[in-house]
Amino acid sequence: MTARDLVARPIGRVARLPILDPLAIRDFRLVWFGEAVSLLGDQFQTVAVAWLVLGLTGSGLALGTILVAAAIPRGIFLLLGGVLADRVSPRDLAFGSNLLRAVLTTVVAGLVLGAQVQLWHLALVGVLFGTVDAVFWPAINTLVPRLVPTDRLAAANALMQGTGQLAGTIGPALAGFAVALIGVGAAYVIDAASFVIAAVALWLVRSGATAARPAPVTETETTATTETTTEPTAATHPAADPHATVESPRPSIATALIEGARAVLGDPVMRLIVILSTGVNLAFTGPVVVGLPWLVLVRFGGDAAALGLLFAAFGAGSLVGVLLGGSFPRPRRFGWLVLGLVVGMGIGLGAIGLASSVVSTAAILVVIGTMNGYGNVVMIAWVQEKTDPEMLGRTMSFLMLGSVVAAPLSIAVTAVLVDADATVMFLAAGALVVVCGLIAMA
User: Among 136, 127, 129, 178, which residue's Cα sits nearest to residue 34?
Assistant: First the structure.
């Protein structure tokens, strides 16, 4: 056996991993590459905006205001974005969204490099950015199921989520180094370039370039419910073509939203997923974003490196979870498994409040991240498989709405509670997750 054979064997095994199967599909490969670049670029903006706002004002409240400025329109227009994803080509929506975000980011970069940026500029761009995000996320979640067959959906979602987790793990460190080395303005330029690359990748995608077509209705169904003042022609008369079909008119936006709400909230399983998503995000977002920094700085007396270790631990665990979810077949009774993972996550979240060191907290976060990553992959794939393609955009927007709405509320509540008693705050948050899981089991 030659040295070349020894190298080729492990490479071949990696290439045969089920999670990599969707990459054999050209259009999905383009979307994945573009979003990988864009997600990494997002980390540059996340670090840059925090550094910029704090440098301008020295106020954490000001930074929170800028973040909320983007969060509010994202929550308001998310359902509308779902309707658009069902009516318009999701590829075109995602492409246009990336172009607009590239323009907005370039404007901020120009203001920073020209030393003209002010707080209101960032707030206005945040509002516009959040609005565009509300269109982009339902579109990209509607596009992926159109690019891969059903049996590869879990692997495709695992790749997309795993890439996001990997970007969130290594991105902040790279972004922090870049901001320190080349400045905030250059970091915005990098983020703008990442959006352009993502847009070009989407432009090259051939699938998903059309909207889902409304279900056709038979001519007899149409004439039974509508009256006509014209004589039927040979081309449209039922006797001439009993199987003739016509495209049903699209409902209004309000009607489409109501249809989406009925489809999601009227289905017990979908309704349960919305409740779980809202409860889990309400319990997790604030403790992770606000609670972990408080523990590191106040309780453990650590530094930024220690905080980075905790975020990296959660990101690494999530990456392991999505790899597992995308590499192995979904269990038959996976619903019970997911609910058990939710309860386990709640127990882990409460345990963080009792942790005595950065190392023990990091170990807990690895476990929580693994459970969260796996559960997200199998659940999203299940939803995409079971949902009518014409309703997929609205369904995904409703499922994301809970997390979008819960996140700012969770941050605000945690900011108040953590100063009073961090241990009680983590225990209460963990208890909320456990209760949500037990109610779902019941």
Answer: 136
